[in-house]
Amino acid sequence: MLEGRKLVWVLLVRESTGFVHACSSQVVSATFNAQIAEALAVFRAIHFFRDCGLFPCVLESDAEVVIKWIVEGSHLDSAGGVILSDISYLIEEIGGLSIGFAPRQANRVAHVLAKQALCAFNDFFWMEDLSSLCCCCGPG
């Protein structure tokens, strides 16, 4: 989520039934466009999955254009081409990773957490009990 010049990265770890096991959010200052921001979020998620050994897995993002570029291997000569190239390299190197588009409406938890992160002063990482995070800034 890119709002003003603030970028919110939200990462959810779910099991195959959809149950959320963990999530994190981080707010950073953005000096780049939305597509680069979304590509960086995918890049960070892949690194997280790799570092935690969470393979095989499915990575879903609501950044339809960026996901299309990654799947097609296109736009490697664009401003975000280096990031897209690194993502392609990681996907090939790691194996066991599927990547796809999911509409924002399909992932209400991520959207609510992104809105909450914009109101928070600290980054957070949560495991197992989402109820402590359900006090949002306003209606989802």
Automatic annotation (TrEMBL):
It comes from the Eukaryota. Residues 1-22 form the signal peptide. SUPFAM superfamilies: Ribonuclease H-like. InterPro entries: RNase_H-like_dom_plant, RNase_H-like_EbsB-rel, RNaseH-like_sf, RNaseH_domain, RNaseH_sf. It holds the Pfam family RVT_3. Residues 12-117 form the RNase H type-1 domain. The keyword Signal applies. Keywords: Signal. One of its GO terms (molecular function) is RNA-DNA hybrid ribonuclease activity. PANTHER family: BNAC02G40300D PROTEIN, REVERSE TRANSCRIPTASE-LIKE PROTEIN. This is RNase H type-1 domain-containing protein. It comes from Dipteronia sinensis. The lineage of its organism: Eukaryota, Viridiplantae, Streptophyta, Embryophyta, Tracheophyta.
